[in-house]
Design brief:
The complex is a heterodimer of chains A (348) and B (320). Helices cover 43% and strands 16% of the residues of chain A. By secondary structure, chain A is of the alpha/beta class. Chain A has an 8-stranded mixed β-sheet with strand order 1-2-4-3-6-9-7-8, with helices on both faces. In chain A, helix 4 packs across helix 11 and helix 8 packs across helix 11. The relative contact order of chain A is 0.13. The chains are: A alpha/beta (348), B alpha+beta (320). Chain A: Belongs to the peptidase M14 family.
Chain lengths: 348, 320
């Protein structure tokens, strides 16, 4: 059954792998692709179902890293929290393919795969994503697919306003018919709860949190509330600006860096803010291409360049995170050891 | 600088200094207790400095970001339908070009330029704000001045613009007033293409129509591109009129368009467009009656806001 499903998927599409990553894929294609990634890379890729959507579908992540005996530090990336932002799941797929393609030959990627595990959710809002594929009139759906309550007959809650991070305070709607509806309460949505639960279990280990959106060409740092600053704002800005510089070097695109209230709008209940609040030091929202010409409906011929530049940006952040965690510790150990050696010689 | 960042910085410096200092002492003395202290110090400071918070209520308010223009005292609440958007309003002063007030104002300039100069072969977007300032006009509104670069999307020609905007405040909000002058945009010579397009479509024996432009995959058929661009320019009339300091509009899609009989040498179209308003994230449907000719440019004769279709949202397979 597995083989026939695999061949059924491929017979509908171009068979060259290069073409696969330059097209958008529906949820069943992405699910099949996740299975393929595990099958082709059994030593480094496993998957984990960590929650259920409103319509009872699995929320699945890929865990990617060279196995080790001890507990490893982690990088979290999620895509597709907003259904209509199709370039985001496309980027998660591209990112996975890139690290799997290069970890054996690229010493830096190899080192990071040794020291870190990547937890990547290609589609977080599975129900919404499937709905946005239903027909042309549903393409611009954003929210989850849970029904309204209390006499409100519209559908969906904005998952990125539903997290327990200054929930409901600013930049939200309390009407279930609106796109930034924050839900009846924080974590009313099972999708937001699934992420919260995972992050809570892993929070000691997660070094960086990246959540991928479109559009606008922005890198947003916490917090969404205009009166609250992250304790490491300067570091977040420095790393974010470094990522924007790396992005620009690829295809010349400008990405603006700042807090959401500074460069875009105030908002609360976002996953990025929640990650920072529970102590994950480097937490960023990426808003990918473009700046409004196509908006959510980015042409497929822009998937590859968008993914290339976003990959450079993400790698800048991940490399910084990795080196800060592992090189400063190693440097300390080296200094300690050299001191011991000096002392031993003196004592002798 | 936020206090936590200052402490983290000091700790890092202190630990490096401590390492050097302590290692010197150890070399010259035989203080093993100091050595143990060194190991403990370095191991502790070797890990990334992190502030772990329990719970997730708001953190203590810190001072404003070092890069920002001082925030105003007033908090302005605007009610748009049922949604509430609470934003701090910038007071008079120099604008940070990468912050939202300058970016929103630049988008308004973009809409204005399209209403003045746009055509099926000329569609303008702003690229960068270089500098700007804003000033309160007592009890009337706020005035902006901007220097920005814009780009014409078909020819890729860039232009440098100086613009002045005025956002009126108060009941019955009227449209912002914009003046702008640009250098460099006239370099895109669209006369030949526009004339050919006009001649091709002015005879009424083959009226064109289309829908879902771009389609779900972002694709626009080459033959549909001028109609897409015309839709974008026509939408600019609405987006300009509807803009204020709390909005950021783009056209998301031409849902459909139908060519009508040419009248008075003007091509005529009914358009149904979807506008994306970024701050509320709403998709807003408008119907427009649009005319165009190379001489007269784009004109929008009628606009009609379409209501949101709430019953359209129900799951596809429900039977009730």
């Amino acid at each position: 059954m597995c083989v026939s499903m695999y061949s059924a998927v491929w017979s509908r599409e171009e068979t060259t792998e290069r073409n696969y990553y330059t097209r958008y894929h529906n949820m069943s294609e992405i699910t099949a692709w996740m299975e393929q990634m595990k099958r082709e890379n059994p030593d480094v890729v496993s998957s984990m179902v960590y929650g259920q959507t409103y319509e009872r579908r699995n929320i699945t992540l890929l865990k990617i890293g060279l196995s080790s005996t001890g507990r490893k530090k982690a990088i979290w990336m999620d895509c597709g929290i907003h259904a209509r932002e199709w370039i985001a799941p496309a980027f998660c797929q591209y990112f996975v393919r890139e690290i799997l393609r290069t970890y054996k030959t690229d010493t830096k990627v190899n080192e990071m795969m040794k020291n870190l595990d990547f937890y990547i959710t290609p589609v977080l809002n599975v129900d919404g994503y499937i709905y946005s594929w239903h027909n042309e009139s549903t393409r611009l759906w954003r929210k989850s697919r849970s029904p309204g309550t209390g006499g409100c007959t519209c559908y969906g809650t904005d998952l990125n306003r539903n997290f327990y991070a200054n929930w409901g305070m600013v930049g939200v709607s309390t009407d279930c018919c609106f796109e930034t509806y924050c839900g009846t309460k924080a974590l009313s949505e099972s999708e937001a709860w699934a992420v919260t639960d995972m992050l809570g279990k892993m929070r000691e280990d997660i070094l960086a949190f990246l959540t991928i959106h479109s559009y606008g060409q922005l890198i947003l740092v916490p917090y969404g509330h205009p009166n609250i600053s992250a304790p490491n704002y300067d570091e977040l800005m420095e790393v974010g600006l470094g990522a924007a510089k790396a992005i620009k070097a690829v295809h010349g695109m400008d990405y603006t860096v700042g807090t959401s209230p500074d460069v875009l709008y105030a908002n609360s209940g976002s996953s990025r803010d929640f990650a920072r609040l529970i102590g994950i030091p480097l937490s960023f929202t990426f808003e990918l291409r473009d700046k409004g010409e196509h908006g959510f409906e980015l042409p497929e011929d822009q998937i590859q360049p968008t993914c290339e530049e976003a990959y450079a940006g993400a790698q800048h952040i991940i490399t910084y995170t990795h080196d800060k965690a592992f090189y400063s510790y190693a440097a300390t150990v080296r200094a300690t050891l050299s001191t011991i050696i000096c002392l031993y010689k003196k004592v002798k | 600088m936020p206090i936590y960042t200052q402490l983290a910085f000091l700790r890092t410096t202190q630990s490096s200094l401590a390492l050097v200092f302590c290692s010197q002492i150890l070399v010259w003395s035989m203080g093993w207790t100091l050595f143990i202290l060194l190991v403990v110090l370095t191991v502790v400071h070797g890990n990334p400095t992190m502030t772990v918070r329990t719970g997730s209520g708001p953190t203590v308010g810190f001072d404003q970001h070092p890069n920002s223009v001082p925030l105003g005292e007033d908090i302005q609440t605007t009610t748009e339908g049922e949604s509430e958007v609470v934003e701090e309003v910038m007071t008079t002063g120099v604008l940070n070009p990468s912050h939202y007030p300058a970016r929103r104002a630049a988008t308004v300039v973009q809409h204005y330029l399209n209403t003045r100069y746009g055509s099926p072969y000329r569609w303008i977007f702003f690229s960068t704000v270089h500098s700007g300032s804003s000033e309160d006009v007592a009890e009337m509104g706020r005035k902006y001045q901007l220097e920005l670069t814009v780009q014409e999307m078909i020819s890729n020609v860039s232009g440098q613009c100086s613009a002045e905007l005025f956002f009126p405040e108060g009941e019955g909000q009227s449209a912002p007033q914009v003046q702008a002058s640009c250098e460099g945009l006239h370099q895109s010579n669209t006369t030949a293409q526009e004339e050919a397009f006009y001649q091709q479509h002015r005879a009424s024996n083959n009226l064109v129509s289309g829908n879902n432009i771009p389609d779900s995959y972002g694709h626009v058929e080459p033959s549909m591109k001028p109609f897409w661009q015309l839709g974008g320019v026509a939408s600019s009339f609405i987006m300009l009129r509807e803009s204020n300091e709390s909005t950021l509009y783009n056209m998301a899609q031409v849902a459909n368009f139908t060519q009508l009989e040419t009248e008075k040498d003007q091509l005529r179209f009914n358009y149904h467009v979807l506008l994306h308003e970024m701050i509320s994230q709403e998709i807003i449907h408008w119907k427009l009656l649009v005319t165009w000719s190379p001489e007269q440019g784009v004109q929008v004769l009628q606009t009609e806001l379409q209501p949101k279709c709430h019953h359209c949202e129900a799951p596809p397979n429900t039977t009730n």
